[in-house]
Amino acid sequence: MHPSILVAWSALYQDAISLCLAMKAAYINKRPEIGHLPTEFKIDHNQPKPSPEAILAHEVLVKVKASSINIDDIHAGEGTFCGGIAILQTKKPSIETPLILGSDFAGEVVAVGKKVKDVKVGDRICGCNAQVYFHEPGTWAEFTITYADHFITIPEFVPYSEAAALVYPLFVNAKMLRLAEPKDSDRVLVIGASGGIGSVLIQVLRKVHPGIHIIAVCSGKNASFVKSLGANDVIDYTLTPIEDALDHGSLDTIFDYVGGDQFRKTQVLLHRKGRFVTATGPVKWIGDKKLSIWEQISCIGAILWNQMLNLIPGSRPYYYMAAPLSLEKELFEMVFSNQIHPAVERTIKFTTTELSEAMSVVQSHRSRGRHVIEF
C-alpha cells in the first residue's frame, strides 16, 4: 500500500478514536465579566468524555437527555453564586481545566460504580451533580457523572425534558416545605409565584393541602397563569405594595423567592407564630453581583440574627433561610405520581445561539417557568 494512503488511514483512525473519547459540551476557559456569560461560553465536541472504567465506586455515568437553565448555573459560571462567597464557588476555569456548565440533568444510566445498588445500566434517572457545592463538572454536556444520593429514578411516562425541569424546583421546595410545615387550613403568600420554582410550589401545595388558601405575588400579566396552577388570589406587585394588599396578621406563611427586604416589609402580614421562609435571603436576586467582604458579612449576619430571634418566644414571626443540600425522593415520587407538571417557557436545542438567548432571558428574571435544553 502506498505510504500516503497509510498516513491518510492512520489520520482517520486517530480522528475516530478522538471522537469516541470526546463529547459535546458547553464550557468556559475563564471567568466572564458579570452579566456576560451568555455571550462568552463555548460549545464544541472537544471536551473529554468520562470513561465508564474511570468512574468511582459511588458514582454513576449518565448519558444526558435534557437539562435546565437555572439562574444559579449562570452565577456559578461567573463566580457570583451566593454573592461570591469564595468557599461556595466552582473551580477556576482555565484552558487546561475548562469548567463545564449546568447543574441538573435527566438521562440514561450507562455505567454504575461498584457501591451503587439502586440503579442499573439503562435506567432513566434525573438529578444533579451538586457542582455549586462540591466543584464538580457540569451537566450541559452529552455525558455527566453523578453520585449515588444525587439522583431519582424517572417513571417511564415522564419525559426527560419534564423531569429535568423539575429537579431544581423540587430540590429547593423540599427544604422550603419542610421549614414551613403548611396545613390545609393555612393562608400562605408566595412571592415570585410565576417563576420556575414558585410555580411548582403552588401546584405541590394545592395537591398536598387541598384546603389551603394561596395568594400569589406576580405581575398582572401572569395573574391568569398562577391561578391556573392553583392560586386563589393574586397581588400585582407593580400596582400595590404587598404589605398594603392584605390585613395585618392574616397569614400563616410567606414563601419568598425574590429576596431583599421582603421580611422587613411583609412580616406585619404574619400572625405571631407565622413563618417567613426564603430561598434567597436578605439580598435581592443574590448572585447578580459579587458582594464585597463587608456585604457578605452583613448578609450572613442578618440571616443568623433573624434566625436567632426565633429562639425568643413571641418576639415576632419566625424567619427561616432554606439552604437545600440533597434531593428528597418522596417529594419527587409524589410529584411524578400526581402528574404535577413544571411550567416550561421554552425548550431549546443544544446550540450556541439558542442557549445564549435562553440564558439571557433567565438572567433578566423575567422568565415565566423553566428553560430546558434537549440533547
Overall description:
32% of the residues lie in helices and 25% in strands. The longest helix is centred in the middle third of the chain and has 21 residues, at 160-180. It has helices at residues 3-21, 37-40, 71-78, 131-134, 160-180, 198-208, 223-229, 242-245, 262-266, 293-308, 329-337, 352-363, and strands at 22-28, 42-48, 59-68, 99-100, 104-112, 124-128, 143-147, 151-153, 187-191, 213-218, 233-236, 251-256, 270-278, 318-321, 344-349, 370-374. It has two domains: 3-154 and 343-374, Medium-chain alcohol dehydrogenases, catalytic domain (Quinone Oxidoreductase, Chain A, domain 1, Alpha-Beta Complex), CATH 3.90.180.10; 168-321, NAD(P)-binding Rossmann-like Domain (Rossmann fold, 3-Layer(aba) Sandwich), CATH 3.40.50.720. The chain has twelve helices and 16 strands. The protein is globular. The strands form three sheets. Strands 3, 5, 6, 7, 8, 15 and 16 form a seven-stranded mixed β-sheet that branches. The protein is α/β, with parallel strands linked by helices. It starts with a helix and ends with a strand.
Give the helix/strand layout.
Layout: H1 3-21, E1 22-28, H2 37-40, E2 42-48, E3 59-68, H3 71-78, E4 99-100, E5 104-112, E6 124-128, H4 131-134, E7 143-147, E8 151-153, H5 160-180, E9 187-191, H6 198-208, E10 213-218, H7 223-229, E11 233-236, H8 242-245, E12 251-256, H9 262-266, E13 270-278, H10 293-308, E14 318-321, H11 329-337, E15 344-349, H12 352-363, E16 370-374
Parallel strand pairs: 9-10, 9-12, 10-11, 12-13, 13-14, 15-16
Antiparallel strand pairs: 1-2, 1-4, 3-5, 3-7, 3-16, 5-6, 6-8
